[in-house]
Amino acid sequence: MSETFVPTNSLKETLAAGRLAIVLSLQAITTINIARIAKASGYDGLYVDMQHGAHTMRETTEICAAAINAGIGALVRVPYVAEHTISPLLEGGALGIIAPGVRNADEARELVSLCRFPPLGERSAGANAPQLGFQKMPKGTAAETLERLTLVVAMIESHEGVEQADAIAATPGVDVLLIGSNDLSGSYGVAGEYTHPKMVSAYETVARACAGNGKVMGIGGIKDDMDILRRYVRLGARLITAGSDIRYLMEIVASKAQALRALGGEIEADGRAG
């Protein structure tokens, strides 16, 4: 007898419990093994960045399906909000959608309409779903289960989004407001200055909006400064995008190259001394 598959989204459960969750951004790696690598490395989730990366729809859904089997939550950042980008991802195994540049409640409602089943949204009920282990179940039960598993993430990346943060957070069906720190700081004309007063005020505004509406605050773009991250986690952030595959690979490769070049320099120095 086959083992019963229990549909879960551990990333969403971690956030619901108020614990800090960290996710790895994928912009280049396409192998499905990255799901288990992320899990073994201590991440709570990963997200395929289809906005800035070059993943195809097939590669993305395969990673999402592999993440389900690995017991880790997989999200996808879409390049733009549209049914033909979001629906295949949710049907293919994504446990959540990250929408870039959400500026107001109307855009948040459009996102929700594509990610949620009626009555909140207009998501179509498919016949099969990797998130359910392809188990047969009544349509109503399947939709209810998928609704419970799915995370809807609205990115705040402009001053307009900050100004409308409370309305976005109040939108039924939205789970997370994720601040895109790089684009947001650029919007304010202080690119990369994450502790500039304008940015501090923006983080505080989004934090209040999330706390007041029972939503999760997330932060992306700040990768190296733990003091800054600690500051905003204490402010209320619970979802952290902790860097990308390209960045980590380059850091490791560059470090190894520098070490080996130094070794070569030692050999040359020894040769000159001899």
Explained architecture:
The protein is an alpha/beta fold. It has a single domain (10-247), classed as TIM Barrel (Alpha-Beta Barrel), CATH 3.20.20.60. It has helices at 10-16, 34-40, 57-70, 83-92, 105-115, 139-149, 159-163, 165-169, 181-187, 197-213, 226-235, 245-273; strands at 21-26, 45-49, 73-77, 96-99, 151-156, 176-180, 216-220, 237-244. Strands 1-2-3-4-5-6-7-8 form an eight-stranded parallel beta barrel, surrounded by nine helices. Helix 2 (34-40) runs parallel beside helix 3 (57-70). The radius of gyration is 21 Å and the shape is globular.
Biggest sheet strand order reads: 1-2-3-4-5-6-7-8
**What integer value in Å does the Rg equal?**
21 Å
How many runs of DSSP E, i.e. beta strands?
8
In helices, the fraction of residues equals 40-55%
The coarse silhouette is globular
Mean pLDDT: 92
Number of helices: 12
Structural class: alpha/beta
Query: What is CATH's topology name?
Result: TIM Barrel
**H-E order:** HEHEHEHEHHEHHEHHEHEH
Number of self-contained structural domains: 1
Strand content: 15-25%
CA distance, first residue to last residue: 73 Å
| Main sheet attributes: strand count, strand direction, barrel closure | 8 strands, parallel, barrel
- The CATH architecture can be named as Alpha-Beta Barrel
